[in-house]
Amino acid sequence: MESNTVNFNGKNESIEIKALPDFLSNQALNYDSLEVVVEERGLSTILNADSKNVKVKQVDNKSEDKDNNQSRTSHILKRNYFVKIGEADDLLKEIGILTKEGKIKNDMIRKYNQIDHFVELIDSMIDELGDVDTINILDCGCGKSYLTFVLNYYIKEKKKKNCFFIGIDRSDKVISASENIAKNLGYKNMKFVVGDINNYEPDRRIDIVISLHACDIATDMALGLAVRTKAKAIMCVPCCHKELLEQYRFDTMQPIIKHGIFKARFADTLTDGVRALLLETQGYKVSVVEYISPLETPKNLLIRQLRLGKRAKSQ
């Protein structure tokens, strides 16, 4: 029987033509919208559909069209998610990952992948804390607090451990939104603060400091707060790196970094390398990993630190 190759969620599958409508219909039930691209004889037929409308158009099957289509598409990955759809639907609906009907929002797949992989990487670090009565976690530059709410769910419901969260951000708007979400979810073990990371003094022991995509030196403020409070662990994903870009000179390598993009990328490496060395001098065991595919976000470097208690001399 005739079959076609279907690329779905990053995987190629061979499906018989007669089975294709049922396959598409069943998969579409999980999403709030879909896009189907049929490539044949130099043309791409693109079908976009949601609960309200269906649109079809044809375009020339040029290489740039394929590239544009792939670059805007994010996938539910072939992995065992830590925060599962079906189990955590109330949470995922409240933070906007799912629609009210329980379908995945296409434009939130990337965010879902990011926060779930962060949970995977912090899981073993939580175990390394040992037996503490309550795990206190401080989220610096918390923004809309997606990560904080997901970690709260995971630690309480899946790890069966007591926890308390503090989110701090300079924007009163995002703090107010986070407080409303916490109220809707019934999470009473959370506190959100409008304030400056540099001046904040927590009113309790801090076990883990997290920071996801805090821009530029906000990442350094978060690391400084973690060191100041003697946090046992730090999980940090830096964002833009502008502070050193116009300050450093490396005459020996000038012919190589004379192009702006190379200079900027070298500044990224230099900034995070210095951060890692400084944290080692403060008694932290540091590891640096790529926490998610660069196709999902180019800002995908995770700096993990576990406090050993002894200050080391940086090499």
What does this structure look like?
With 315 residues, the chain is of the alpha/beta class. The chain folds into two domains: 3-71, no CATH class; 89-307, 3-Layer(aba) Sandwich (Rossmann fold). The protein is built from nine helices and twelve strands. The chain has helices spanning 20-28, 63-71, 89-94, 109-128, 146-158, 172-185, 218-228, 254-257, 260-281; strands at residues 3-8, 11-16, 33-40, 43-50, 54-60, 135-140, 163-169, 190-194, 208-214, 233-238, 284-290, 301-307. The N and C termini lie far apart (65 Å). The model is unreliable at 63-73 (pLDDT under 50).
Shape: globular
DSSP summary, beta strand count: 12
The main pleated sheet reads as: 7 strands, mixed
Tell me the number of helical segments per DSSP (H or I, 4 or more residues long): 9
The top level CATH class name of the largest domain? Alpha Beta
CATH architecture call of the largest domain? 3-Layer(aba) Sandwich
| CATH H-level homologous superfamily name of the largest domain | Vaccinia Virus protein VP39
Helix and strand string, N-terminal first?
EEHEEEHHHEHEHEEHEHHEE
Q: Total domains, how many?
A: 2
Which key terms come to mind for this protein?
Rossmann fold; 7-stranded mixed sheet; 2 domains; 9 helices; 12 strands; 315 residues; globular; 25% strand; alpha/beta; single chain
